């Protein structure tokens, strides 16, 4: 599957378009179902989007009905939610504190827990609270960033087996820092109805080029394997990240 590629002059312009698309898509889904399940990502590029999304409910005609939306996470560092490395903490600072979303709609991975226990608990929670398709959770929308090494969620190049795991969640280890993390597996990610990469910065241009051009080196990047099963795939890029394609 070839992704839909959308290129913007700046990350601010990209975030603005993402917010408009978020409003449109959630409204469309809310006419068909009473719960919209969305997976958030960590990273600096999604943070800009979250900040803009958090300030979107200023015009009554364009308000997002957050009571229908349930938030999940693609991965979490094994730290407390108040820690600067916490993906939930980042989303809380830039988005959650600014919106009127019921507390029971926020389903964070508890990074402060025992990793193996939390990976199992989160898997069980997904099985009970997210519709299954092909025996895996079928999220309505998953947002992903991409690391400088091509990792997505917390699936790193030296841990490609997590892309093909039959579990919903697994424990991962950062190759350099050895920090433990809990991540959704590849089979959960590709089972979503819609997947959107949010990518910005000149340091991503080489990886973007190699994946888009299907170069042999791209086979070592987890991001290269994210191709939805019957869903929609988009890459939102700023000019710096897209300059080689």
Q: Can you tell me about this structure?
A:
With 245 residues, the chain is an alpha/beta fold. The protein has one domain (4-242): Rossmann fold (3-Layer(aba) Sandwich), CATH 3.40.50.1360. It is built from seven helices and eleven strands. The chain has helices at 11-30, 44-54, 87-94, 115-129, 186-189, 205-212, 239-242, and strands at residues 4-8, 36-40, 69-73, 75-77, 132-133, 136-137, 141-144, 169-173, 180-184, 194-199, 232-238. Strands 1-11-10-7-2-3 form a six-stranded parallel beta sheet. Helix 1 (11-30) crosses helix 2 (44-54) and helix 2 (44-54) runs parallel beside helix 3 (87-94). It is globular. The mean pLDDT is 94.
Order of helices and strands: EHEHEEHHEEEEEHEHEH
Q: Residue share in helices?
A: 25-40%
Task: Specify Rg, calculated over alpha carbons.
Answer: 17 Å
Uncertain stretches of 5 or more adjacent residues: none
Average pLDDT figure: 94
State the helix count.
7
Domains, number: 1
What class, by secondary structure content?
Answer: alpha/beta
Report the count of strand segments. 11
Q: What's the CATH first level?
A: Alpha Beta
Which fold does the CATH topology refer to?
Rossmann fold
CA distance, first residue to last residue: 17 Å
Question: Strand arrangement, largest sheet?
Answer: 1-11-10-7-2-3
Shape: globular
Our estimate of the beta-strand percent is 15-25%
CATH architecture designation = 3-Layer(aba) Sandwich
| Largest sheet descriptor | 6 strands, parallel
């Amino acid at each position: 599957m070839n992704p839909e590629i959308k290129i913007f002059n700046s990350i601010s312009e990209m975030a603005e378009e993402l917010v408009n698309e978020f409003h449109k898509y959630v409204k469309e889904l809310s006419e068909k179902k009473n719960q919209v399940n969305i997976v958030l990502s960590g990273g600096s590029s999604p943070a800009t989007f979250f900040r803009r999304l958090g300030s979107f409910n200023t015009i009554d005609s364009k308000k997002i009905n957050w009571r229908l939306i349930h938030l999940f996470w693609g991965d979490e560092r094994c730290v407390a939610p108040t820690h600067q490395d916490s993906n939930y903490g980042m989303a809380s600072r830039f988005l959650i504190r600014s919106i009127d979303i019921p507390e029971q709609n926020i389903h964070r991975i508890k990074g402060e827990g025992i990793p193996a226990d939390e990976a199992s608990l989160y898997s069980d929670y997904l099985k009970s609270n997210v519709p299954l398709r092909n025996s895996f959770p079928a999220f309505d929308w998953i947002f992903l960033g991409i690391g400088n090494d091509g990792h997505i969620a917390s699936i790193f190049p030296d841990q490609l087996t997590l892309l093909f795991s039959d579990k919903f969640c697994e424990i991962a280890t950062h190759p350099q820092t050895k920090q433990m993390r809990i991540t959704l597996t590849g089979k959960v990610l590709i089972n979503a109805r819609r997947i959107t990469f949010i990518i910005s910065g000149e340091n991503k241009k080489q990886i973007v080029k190699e994946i888009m051009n299907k170069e042999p080196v791209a086979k070592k990047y987890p991001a290269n394997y994210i191709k939805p099963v019957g869903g929609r795939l988009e890459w939102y890029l700023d000019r710096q990240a897209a300059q080689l394609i």
